[in-house]
Design brief:
By secondary structure, this protein is mainly beta. It contains 1 helix and 5 strands; from the N terminus they run E-E-H-E-E-E. The protein has one domain: Roll (Ubiquitin-like (UB roll)).
Length: 72
Amino acid sequence: MNEQNNFQITVIFEPENYSRLLPRPRSVTQLLNRLKLKPCEVLVIRNGGLLTPDREILPGETITLRSVVSRG
């Protein structure tokens, strides 16, 4: 892992299917606040498992945000 990854995470947005590097938040709550999202709007997934708002996010991780809001 290079030094820059120590301060960033990769966020994959689904179903839009794009990713972004972001400065690492300390928790799921901080990530959602930074992206102006509510916990009821997305599923937060790491390594196939769901994360609750209080879970820590580690440097260099890949987090998937899967929309659960109807766009119709």
